[in-house]
Amino acid sequence: MPAKLSFKQEMDILFESKDNPGVMIALFPSYDVAKQLYIKGGEDIDELHVTVIYIGKMSTLTDVQMSAVLDACSDVSKNMPPIDGSFGGIGRFNASETSDGLDVFYASYDAAPLTQLRSSLASKLSASSVPFQQKHGFTPHCTLKYIQQNESLPYPRLKSEIPSKMEYLTVAAGKTRIPFQFRG
User: Fold this and answer.
1) What is the residue-wise DSSP string for the chain?
2) What is the pTM of this model?
């Protein structure tokens, strides 16, 4: 009889741990919205997302911490309705160590409940001793493309505002995603 795997071992398998992916809590737009945001040569269409909280590398989390991440998402999502918002502008972050020395071209995402969502998740994660990245402030955005520091923006503005209703809060690591439907 094979030995029972620990929760962390199960999660390591689930999250393709051989690559030690980063773990984040994010909002993924619908495919129709992602198609409107997509830029040729940019981020893959199925990777476009708005990071709510970046946790860190999978290998840094204990079983208890990973379980707390999932519990926090479950608890918060069941008490919040879907997030109604829109992508309404573009921007550029200067290159940093977190962007591998490349500038970040992004679409901003505006939705009133985002601050409450992030705050609720941060409180639950902190109460469970789950560390998460706090190096940058919270600027809700969807990275469209990483560009060279001297490269011009792919375009100066969005053609129009793009409404986007986010139905799920998602824990993601690499290609693996665990969605939690907003049900409040």
Assistant:
1) -PPPPPHHHHHHHHTTGGG--EEEEEE---HHHHHHH--TTSS-GGG--EEEEEEEEGGG--HHHHHHHHHHHHHHHHTS--EEEEEEEEEEEPP-GGGTT-EEEEEEEE-TTHHHHHHHHHHHHHHTT-----SS----EEEEEEE-TTPPPS-SS-SS-EEEEE-EEEEEETTEEEEEE---
2) 0.89
- Local confidence pLDDT in tens for the 184 residues of the chain: 455 556 566 566 555 555 778 899 999 999 999 999 999 999 999 999 999 999 988 888 888 999 999 999 999 999 999 999 999 999 999 998 778 899 999 999 999 999 999 999 999 999 999 999 887 789 999 999 999 999 999 988 888 999 999 999 999 988 889 999 999 8
Other residues' Cβ atoms within 10 Å of the Cβ of residue 117? 22
Beta bridge partners of 83: 166
Domains of the chain, earliest start first? 24-181 (3.90.1140.10)
Write out the two tokens for 126. 């902190």
CB neighbours of 132 closer than 8 A, spacing ≥ 6? 53, 54, 55, 56, 122, 125
Would you state the structure tokens that stand for residue 124, as one six-digit string?
Answer: 């639950």
Intra-chain end-to-end CA distance of the chain, in Å: 43
